[in-house]
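Record pair follows.
FIRST:
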Amino acid sequence: MTRIGKQTIGLDNRPVIIQTASIVGPKEAQGPMAGYFDHCLEDEFWGEKTWEKAESKIIKETVNLAISKSGISSSAIDFCFAGDLLNQCISSSFGLRDANIPFFGIFGACSTFVESMTLGSIFIESGAANNVICATSSHFCSAEKQFRFPLELGNQRPPTSQWTVTGSGCSILSSSGEGPCITHVTPGKIVDMGIKDANNMGAAMAPAAFDTLMAHFEDTGRKPSDYDAIVTGDLGYIGKDILEDLCKTKGYNISHNYDDCGVLMFDKLEQDTHSGGSGCACIATIFSGYFYKQLQERKIKKLLLIATGALMNSTSSQQGESIPGIAHAIAIES
């Protein structure tokens, strides 16, 4: 493990992503990525009485599915890193309370998936673990109720708003085995540009993605063309455009190999999701479903995965606070 520059860590032993799993909700099942997910739900409750209980079930079953697909026993999993958007991360802690695996509940808002993979990679690289689980979840209905308005009110959503993805994604990292390897991690700094509109997450998070992306390039000496794909988590259409414009101010043109999971998840015109997808599950499900397969098949050989998060809650919004952003990046090679 080598410190590179100010923010990046090079991983000498290269933790392996040996397996992934993804479960999504009914709206995601109607989108262009549907064929890449392991399981698509027919309704948002999945047999539970509340949306929150449904979300806990989704992450529980996603983790179980990943373990089953990996062929290793749950007793061989040393640690679990998981998080979500609900207060005190109750989706993860309630969903995984019977897993009998040492548990780290983490929160980075929608950046949590890559944060979990960053921490899991360092645990494996240091020799503290051989196998770790990294998982996140989100649910449109529970997130809307907590952060914006109860769905029963039927509030009109502005064009800048995004649709929180219902689902869960999980990756199992290992010190050995076959699969794409994590070679570098670049944890991000908190960046706050004064955005206060809770219905414009893309504008709030794009500066943080830009800051982390520039730090990664400066630390490693790499440039956009060194990657087959640069993928952000859930900036949506507006945030994606902002990030591309910010990169141009530093002389980087990322438009030829850059995409965003919030843009990829839904059909903007057919599904009326305005600026695209968001939520912890957005990048988690699309990486675990789509990009992991692209890496396995070597259609993508080098991927820079950047998860973005808005570090806010309902209290901070009610008190007129701005929305700090965060972004974490990992480099993955097949």
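SECOND:
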Amino acid sequence: MGKLIEYIARETDGEPFGSFKYGYDNDPSLRIPYEDLSQQITPKQYAESQKIPTSRDMTKLALQLRQYPPLFRYFLDGSRMVYKIDDIRYDKKVYPLIAGQISVACCERIMQDDGVSFAAFQHVAEEAYSVLALPNAANSKGIDTSVFFRSLCQKINELEQAKRKRIDIRKILAYSSSQQDSSFDKLATARIQDEMIDCEKKIVAQLVSQHKLTQDDYLIKDGSLQYRTIKTGDYGEMKKIRSNYQRVVGVSKMFNPNLMRDNRGRSIAADIAKLPLFHRTPAIMWEPDPAFCEANFAIWYVRIRERDKTTTPYSGILKIEKMLMTGEEAEYGLSTDEVDMITANIINERNPVCYGNDARWANHLYPVYMTECYCKSKFKSEYYFLNIF
């Protein structure tokens, strides 16, 4: 058993068990989705100005836009790794002691003076640090939990062992020790994911405050924008920061097509799978449960790879999301011209490809792939990280 674990147990009046340490990230039961996968999406109304019931060909527009500077300049991705480092007893209950590594980065594409030739790709913002997740029951002093854990975190980082191993535990996150309808492992993992999502929101807020996101410089966020409402973090309530996402587009490589329904309640999964190359679906409006997410969305799909050159019906198809900001957008949706412009620019991001480097190559946009690689390069190896404790 590591000295750090013994120190944490001593400071929190707990009893450690010396359990086997391992990474959680290959356990599908502990994956926390961005999207509310319980809600079917039925298009009661379109989310664009032109009501076009069939797919729309973007080939011509994508070709035309290649002679102009690309719409997307910034690319955001977040990742986290979660590890079981011990079990610990508090008040006759046994809880997992969880550690995590968080990495969130935004990269910028810099163009040549002609505006259309690629010059450089560099990071402009990042958050990379380690966290611990402990149950509320670990607060044995009876003081405010956030104050107690902040003090404990500072003490851990001041230990000689921590300094020698260059440990930087940025935060100790509290998970519920009383909730009975979910595993403690999943509660701890969700807290670490919430922290990662808060970092994503923080970076978007920084870019907006620096006036970097404009009508000519959009940001692609890897994955869904359906941030669920959380009570923790500085950016937990989406309604307070929704205006930051005016120039942000969410692009998902993986999605559940069976949740999409037509206005008669029938699945349109087959229609999505049969999309011709460079065609997009109509943008539909989705109003999620406000308890889950405090924003409405325009959602549509586009095929960026040939069907006969990929492995599954949904390889080469991307799900695109845009938050609806104004009252006019909430009532009438986005301008069809804006939906077309976003889609055509995303099609133009499909090359080059990361074929051979990632099994998801058909659904990758290369700048997003590069940002994801940069994020993951900040992680310590599992072997090294686990032996810190």
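COMMENT: The first strand starts at residue 15 and ends at 16.
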